[in-house]
Amino acid sequence: MIFNCVVEIGKGSKVKYELDKETGLIKVDRILYSSTVYPHNYGFIPRTLCEDNDPMDVLILMQEPIYPGAFLRARAIGLMPMIDQGEKDDKIIAVCADDPEYRHYTNINDLAPHRLAEIRRFFEDYKKNENKEVAVDDFLPADKAFAAIKHSMDLYGTYAVEALRR
C-alpha cells in the first residue's frame, strides 16, 4: 500500500513539530528533553483520524532527513502498537517509496533486528524525562498496518460527513 504522508519532523531532529489544526501550519510543539533525536522522518497520513483525534502517525525510513511540511510517497511495512499516557497512539512504520535504498522493503521483518530495536527504544524513551508514560507493544506485519490505515480513513470519512451536516 503506497500513500502520501506529510513530514512533521526530520530525521535527526530534537524539535517536535506538529500540524496546527487551526492554521494548517507546522508549529513547534516542544524540544525533546534529552539527547534523544528522531531516528527517522516522522509525520502523519492526511485524511485519516485516530482515536486520539489526530491523523495517523507514521515513521518513514529513508536515507535523508526531510523538511517539515514536505510530503512524500510511502509504503507501510508494519504497525507499532503504542499507548501514550493511557491513550492508544499506534504508529505506522513505513519506507519512502521513492528511496532506492528502502523502496524494496515490504514488511517489518525485512528490517534488521537492530533497526527495530532502535525504533522501539526511541519511542520507549523519548518522553521519559518529561515523566510521561509510554508503552510499546510488539511490531505487527504490513497487513495490520493496512487495516489500521483503512480504519483511520473510515473514521476521517465519518467525521467529515458529520462536519458537513452541522
From TrEMBL:
Alphabetized UniProt keyword annotations? Hydrolase, Magnesium, Metal-binding
The record's section on InterPro entries has: Pyrophosphatase (IPR008162), Pyrophosphatase_sf (IPR036649)
Catalyzes what? Answer: diphosphate + H2O = 2 phosphate + H(+)
Q: Keyword Hydrolase: yes or no?
A: yes
BP-aspect Gene Ontology terms: phosphate-containing compound metabolic process
Please list the cofactors this protein needs.
Mg(2+)
Q: Which CDD domains match?
A: pyrophosphatase
Q: What is its EC number?
A: 3.6.1.1
What Gene3D superfamilies does the record tag this protein with?
A: Inorganic pyrophosphatase
Molecular function (GO) terms listed?
Answer: inorganic diphosphate phosphatase activity; magnesium ion binding
Q: Name one GO cellular component term.
A: cytosol
Task: Tell me its family.
Answer: Belongs to the PPase family.
Q: What PANTHER family does the entry give?
A: INORGANIC PYROPHOSPHATASE
**Family annotation (HAMAP family):** Inorganic_PPase
The identity of this protein, by name, is Soluble inorganic pyrophosphatase
Native species of this protein?
Zostera marina
